[in-house]
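Re: Re: token formats

Sure, here are both.
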Amino acid sequence: MTVAIVLLALLGSAWLLAVIEGWMATGRLSPAAPLFRGLAHLGRESIVPRSPDRVFFEAAPVLLLVVAVLGMAVLPLAPDLIIADLGTGALFVNAALAYVLVAVIMAGWGPDGAYGMIGGWRFLGQLIAYSMLIVMPITAVAMRAESLVNTAIVGSQAGLWNIVYQPLGFVLFYIAAMALAFRAPFDLPSAEGELGGGVDAEYTGVRLAVLRLARLTLVVTLASATTVFYLGGWHGPLLPPWAWSLIKTLAVAVSMLLVGHYLPRIREADLMRWCWVLGIPLALLNIIIVGLLILVVP
């Protein structure tokens, strides 16, 4: 029952994001548009490139979707609404999301197309840099909770959310989440103006539908992780716990779409430099600050 509820919440959130994405693209708010677009993809021919690596080409969209669902499996919507409350849940989130890189590299390499391959290698450099800004803020969050259990991390924020306790960590994690989901302005792997879609370019029909669903699901999973680690999870007045988790998750996910809509794409050289020169030192500073707060503030 828990599995079904979490999966329905995940799919419903992805559907809402697809509606908002369509509104930003066309200026029209149509709740049925994702359904029509999905049916249109299912009705189109799934074209296979001339000389693909067939295993990589077929597996990449499915793997990306599985990775997003696995990450969501250890994130609680309520104290008793979580698929797997692992003892190392926070680390599992990071470990699962690492396979986003594998899926995107496969999507770029599999079709044997120049644009897709360039997009895949772009994402390799992007994730190697920004994965540090995922795991280092999680380290500071676990330090405060004195646990890697995600329900315990939410419980530690009952009096004060981590966005207040460690705002620098929140900003770094939020930026890294956008880079991991390769949403604009971090959409270098799929840059339509430069690469004609990049890793998405050679996919059509059902495969493209699965790939787009996987990308939206990944945004929801990263937004849920942000909610669990920094926004107090299910904590909130009046409404039931699961409602607060969904409201916060959707708010973060929608903000990721809106922020990317109004910012220009960042050059790959600048993207790398900002992370290595500025992001990682700030993440280390955040760990030091949280450590000092734990020692000084009872």
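Second one below.
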Amino acid sequence: MATAFDEPSIAQRIARAVLSPSHRRIADYVLDHPLRVAAMPIDELASIVGVSVATANRFARALGFDGYAQFRTALVLGFETALAPVEKLRGKPEKPASAADILAATLSETAHNIDRTRQGLDTEACNRAVAAILGARRVFILGLGSSVWLAGLLLRKLELFCDQVQLLASMEGSSHAARILHRVKPGDLVIAIAFPRYLSDTLLLTRRAREAGADVLALTESPGSPLASLATIALFAHGESQFFANCEASSLALIEALSSAVAHASGRSVEAAAELAEAVLPWLHGNHAGALRPSSAWDRQAPSPSTPRRGPKPRQGR
């Protein structure tokens, strides 16, 4: 039985086909911009290349397809996740709307996502996630691409309750995470964060962490996520978005909720809040700031605004 892997690729079909000069122009554009063409209707491709719609259809048939629709379906294979936002917008005709309408609709969509995230919580998975965070010898947070911002916020919360927690992100990119994860051992926990569109580096590094014996807590959008299958524990944030690949507000809400559950289970949420307040107090706006913050050399030398500057002594008359 033939499978998708038995089918020749678009590039192979083009290499084997006998093409007219017009068809060759289309083929060159397809080979140079496969992802762009995968999102194009036939009239747009024909216009860009400078041929007729009929010629574009004949090009698809020359490659062995019934027509352009089947050609485009074959081209889209492998690009489904990357093209999802494009196809979503293409499928919804634009309607006149004010900026306020879009803001209101997006806020409603976000609230719906958060509610679906709440409804989908699994009690056992939540308990295991919190226990894994508090019981781990070391906690590593892996988030690349747009997820690095979410990872940073999670770090900011968890470092109040975990003795050793580290963000696997730096200017070096994935190589920094790979170098740190090389030291991962059983007893460590890796919290991997990935939402559409998934970065292959996140999946590769998560797989390596599992192979090293570490537990993996995945924060992702559904059980069908490629990250979920690599995890020992998974929590899901529903992220439907009209204009983007994912609604990051619901992802952030899940992180906020998870951090709150960790704070509660630690038994030291009040103590941690007091320690944090004391640490940052000198840098907070208010009358107390100047009295508590260590003064710099410049502060000690600069004259006070309320103290008049000394001018030159007046000459004495003779």
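The two ends are 119 Å apart (CA to CA). Residues 139 and 206 are 13 Å apart (CA to CA).
- S.
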